Amino acid sequence: MTDADPVRLYRTVRLIRRFEERAVELVHGGQIVGGIHPYLGQEGIAAGVCAALGADDVVAGTHRGHGHVLARGADPARMLAELCGRVTGLNAGRGGSMHAADFSLGVLGANAIVGASGAIITGAVWGRRRQGRDTVGVSFFGDGAVNEGMLLEAFNLAALWRVPVLFVCENNGYATTMPIAGAVAGSIAGRAAAFGIPAARVDGQDPETVRAAAAAAVDRMRAGGGPELIEARTYRFDAHHTFEHAVRLDYRPPDEVTRGRARDPVRIQGERLPDADRAAVDAEVEATLDAAVRFALDSPRPDPADALAYLYASGLTGRTGGG
Amino acid sequence: MPRLSYRRALTRALADELARDDAVFLLGEDIQVGASMVTTGLARRFGADRVRDTPLSEQAFTSFATGAALAGLRPVIEFQIPSLLFLVFEQIVNHAHKFPLMTGGQCAVPVTYLVPDSGSRTGWAGQHSDHPYSLFAHVGVVTVVPATPADAYGLLVTAIRHDDPVVVFAPAAAMDVRDDVDDLVPVPLGRGRIHRFGDDVTVVAVGHLVHDALAVAEELADQVSVEVFDPRTLYPFDIDGLTESVARTGRLVVLDDGNRSCGIAAEIIASVVERVRLLAPPRRVTRPDGAVLPFAPALDRAVQPGRDQLATAIHLTMKDGS
Predict the structure, then answer these.
(1) Which member of A39, A44, A277, B37 has the greatest number of CB atoms within 10 A?
(2) Subunit contact A94:B104, Cβ cutoff 8 A
(3) Sign of the CA dihedral with B171 first, then B176, B180, and B181 last
């Protein structure tokens, strides 16, 4: 089930990288309103982890969530249309960057509340397995989430009930602007250990390393093991959020940024490919994204009359606000 | 005719739904032994897998239920204490309630949050005596507060079968109400019930207060003809049913065990006066603004809306309009 093909892994990190760069351009151009949290620099984690999953597995992500959705195979055109608030978007333009979801691929959504995905994924995996499926799940979160009680409660539940959830901490060193040294007492792996959850610390900048660690964890979980945690050390190449492009916040030393950017998951994986193969992937990704941008920008905007469509799955409708 | 208590009606509803639909399961604290005396016997009958005791991790198990619902199950969570709803307000409102819209209709979150013994249990003090149903009505989560055993059964069954989150408040002061019940059937959401017909004033009473309103109506029967309207569901609210009642009586008093400011009584009055020209200003009898229930029994009682206050409000509204 694990996809160890280095070309496909490169394609995924390259797709996420270029998707995010195009999305940032669309933010600056005003076509994406509200900004995004770019996943730039962290692509190897989503790509590596999702390469270790099967079709019936589920994932839930974070406010910095585009990479997880794309790595599960979501259509980049519909993803970009979602960011642009179009009806053709994955969520019909109702979710945007922080809530993009594709339930047909087991992507139960990016989630804007830090630490929220752990318990939701634990319940979703338990629920699917209770129906006889062989599902495992992944909860992605950042280093900021390890101080959220809700997530630590989820660690406990998953371990207690032996629900096969891979908790993936994308440790980019900062919770928005708060450095990890100012926020985390003890350690991230130590939090897992407290609940008897095996934890591995890996280089999140190397997609193959992440994939191998995730695949080993997924194998153990499918064989009946309980939850595991991977702390993937990474570096965010760009802003916490694109609002920082307009408002300079001084919290990362320039030499640290330079050092961080030097370990580039796209370059690291790309160097494992012959030049011609890499160029072919790059061209194909570019063509895909050109088409995605066209699709997104040509797609219709939702009708304000339908602003509260989908509010209730039961079809209940409330009163309108006017008059 | 069999007599059934409100508490047993809840048990029956849970048992019937567990038996009917394998997707239904219960989650909560001390539910296998049945500390609330609602889930009594269910673990033995349906097994520990479907009647799951949880650690004291309300936030995690509330979102666990959201995840299980996303996977196609129908979880029912029992909260032993109404104030726990404050702890999980985020998980219910920000996640369970918002998922269908935020995902553009990709999912449903059919979770039932059952709160037995909501409101005051007398002597349980500040952090165990709240009745926060208005908060859920405000955010648009389906909110039901049954008053009778038959409605407790029927609304809990409907809640479990409903495709969106539903909070079911079962007021402590109604839990021991017994009734002759012929058949137990599902009760539709958003449909009120007139318990007593009258000509002069419509009293809307929420949950256990329906019984107080009926007692007051009986006491005043030789002076004023009181209609008692039980909304049963606070959101969605049966505004058509209430409008029909108030259009006949021309007067409105609301009896609500929530705090006054921004409480459901305010919403009910506003919704009626948008539609009906009343004969007298409407009145509401509620807990005071910002109330915290004090411990000593006399103080606990003093902060809750009472029958004397209701009788006074009825008299005032009759005088105003005459």
Answers:
(1) A44
(2) yes
(3) positive
